[in-house]
Amino acid sequence: MENPLLAFTDKGIYCEQAGVYLDPWKPVDKAIISHGHADHSRWGHGRYITHERNVPIIEHRLGNIHSTGVSWGESFTVNGVRFSLHPAGHIPGSSQIRVEYKGEVWVFSGDYKTGDDGLSTPYEPVRCHAFITECTFGLPAFKWRPQEEVFRDINEWWAENRSEGKTSILFGYSLGKAQRLLKHLDTSIGKVYTHAAIENMNEVIRTFLPLPETSRITKETQRDELRGHLVLAPPSAHGSPWLRKMVPYETATASGWMAFRGARRRRAVDRGFVLSDHCDWAGLLESIEATGATRVICTHGYSDIFSRFLREKGLDARTEETQYEGELAEMNSTEGAEIT
Amino acid sequence: MKDFAQLIRKLDSTNKTSVKVKALASYFNLASDRDKVWTIAILSHRRPSRPVNTTLLRQWASEVAGVPHWLFEESYHIVGDLAETIALVVSGKKEIDKPLAQVLDELIPLKKRSEEEKKNYVVEHWLGFSFYERFVFTKLITGGFRIGISQKLMTRSLSLATGIDEDILAYKLMGDWDPNTISFQELVLEKNKTDLLSKPYPFYLAYALEDEPENLGDPSEWLAEHKWDGIRSQVIFRNDEVFVWSRGEELVTDKYPEFSLLLEHIPNGTVIDGEILPYPKNSIGTFNDLQKRIGRKTVSKALLKKIPVILMAYDLLEWEGVDLREQPFEERRKKLEVLAEPLVPDSSIPLYLSGTMGFEHWSDFAAERDRAREKKSEGLMLKRKDSPYRVGRKKGDWWKWKVDPLTIDAVLTYAMRGHGRRSNLFTDYTFGLWNTTEDGERELVTFAKAYSGLTDAEFRKVDAWIKKNTLERFGPVRSVTPYHVFEIAFEGLAPSGRHKSGVATRFPRILRWRTDKSIEEANTLDDLKKLIP
């Protein structure tokens, strides 16, 4: 196969015919961006084309950039190549990128999940010949429960902590996970307080989506006023002196990795809730089937294992190295900057 | 089973000791007596022998989950725990509700059933249990319930639930009892135990000395003895029988037939605390020698002759049927000496006395410690003269003061995913040292594996580096670009024909990450060989 429509280069996924990169990891002239997490929308590109809901998010993160917003399904053509964005269900504004040239269709999934989280526009399968898919949780060991059950557990945990006079600290990414948690917390139990990193992102999201009321934690916030309530914090706050104000407290993390007992113990949180913004095993398989693609390229996650399984099922599947990190980044961001 | 699985989930989902003890105590308050006995048995590693081997379990699990066998194996490597992997990949519904004791009653006779019957039983329960029940059920089959509950924690919770003193409970739960036949009344509640015959006392264990010995105060209040490197044991003489217990609470009498000789010389009602040591050619051997004995259930005459063992006596816990543990160490030692001294000169009797030493200055203790390697010990034990023989690991009266380990700088060459809390992180490392081949080429030769010694933060850094610098993948193992140097510590080393490097190291672990060193500055295999005593 000479000149594939999308090629993997050292700068990112490249459409040579259009001169456009998808989620590049090195600075380029023109980039189409799937969503606002930092491993997909990096600093330094000349132009950013992304979903209109993602524009305020990346402008908040990256400052003054040259960005253009498009809506779901709206197509635009560059040198004969037709591009369009379709909901990926990962976080608000997250898109799959469809690329069509001379009747050949490729889709780059970005990060995605098949379940409706009640916040992000739900994932829609897009028919294509070649599908570039993440496989962060591409192992049969990952099976998500319906989110209603998980949120019931989270709310019960909060209510129990409250009855013991403790503050509940729930860790989740400041973009996406935090708002999803917020949306489903039972605010009849108590108030939701937020870490500044999360509250700043809430303000951005509120410009286009309604979110429940929150209170920002500041230097003036008193310990007694927090007691029994819930604090949403980014994973990087875990183990930091910032938590001192919340004593006595219980901690929990909401992440797909919490499916593993070892991961929860490594994070040293009191509770782990299995809640992910990525597909589980069945979700990946279903969505690949729904695309009708015969060629599948697996990027970040358990890509070697997953692509081998797809090959055994008769698909033309392979692995490509990228610099996307999926939810792994979340697990390791206890120190340093929060990556996603 | 539901309540027990719920308990395991609670114990599993907290790192706080107080929460664990509370959860366990409230379980002990509510569970049936038979379930309690089994819970105590399981948490003190008295599980029934494995009714089904793990090869079959893996095969059935991949079948039931509808995934190819290789994919199940890959998942297992990543999850790091077989029972957890099975619980994750197999889906079930909550349909079966039966008590823990009943599950065990059914599991034990399963061992003798046909493969088909085994499969039907196991699969039916996998499919009929919820996630945690399935996990716990599979753990009951595979064994090894490592969920951060020590015997000590379990005893403390039981004490909280029953009001019985912790030390007394620890003693009651020692030794050889069968959860199949014993009742909760007999095991825990009854005051007069009828069958104390073989029961060992809980071992008193020491912590490592953290500060300088000067902080222990007046040297005249202390005795030192060498810390021998064998198997810590209790040898019990009662009713004209001898019982040998290892520190892991395993009855190992049959493995060390030498000690039946002692019956002629030591009266009933005697319990000695000591160290089983290999004694080839009438001198203390290496731990490698002892390993040849540890693995054998029955010992051949040839091996008995080649590597005989002796008991190096430390302490006397019972004399004339009286429990001496509350007496001062010095007093117990005097009685031990009266007992042992006449026997030691006779080389046909496998009993030796670990010598105690008192010094005027801490510097003299330190000088004795420096002689540890030449005496074939691991360092010194410091014991307060007036110390009682306590239960379990306690700080204060006894300290172990090991010699500084041998160290060498080696290059990280391979990495494997860890287990348990480190699954999914590359934390098990292989290290190489430089060797010059006949053609004059420098190559790295593997000399040791180590998986402890770095902080979690360091492990995360090394893990991230490994993921970006992988050369080749072999299942769960990756070879990496030689780049990082680590200082590796170990307790000793001996020539070995089984190791590629020709050297076996004892208890290797990572001491430091030498970010200041390049791989060219790492040590050579010859440097290592020079350390062989």
Walk me through what this model shows:
- Chain A: It is an enzyme of class 3 (hydrolase).
- Chain A: One of its GO terms (molecular function) is exonuclease activity.
- Chain A: Its EC number is 3.1.-.-.
- The complex is a heterodimer of chains A (340) and B (533).
- With 340 residues, chain A is α/β, with parallel strands linked by helices.
- Chain A has 2 domains: 7-142 and 277-332, Metallo-beta-lactamase, Chain A, CATH 3.60.15.10; 147-273, Rossmann fold (3-Layer(aba) Sandwich), CATH 3.40.50.10890.
- Chain A has helices at 54-62, 147-163, 177-184, 196-205, 223-226, 261-267, 281-291, 303-312, 328-332; strands spanning 7-8, 13-15, 20-22, 30-33, 47-51, 67-70, 75-78, 81-87, 95-101, 104-108, 130-135, 167-171, 192-194, 215-216, 230-233, 249-254, 271-273, 295-301, 316-319.
- Chain A is globular, with a radius of gyration of 20 Å.
- With 533 residues, chain B is α+β, with helices and mostly antiparallel strands.
- Chain B contains 19 helices and 20 strands.
- The chains are: A alpha/beta (340), B alpha+beta (533).
- The interface between A and B is medium-sized, with 27 and 36 residues.
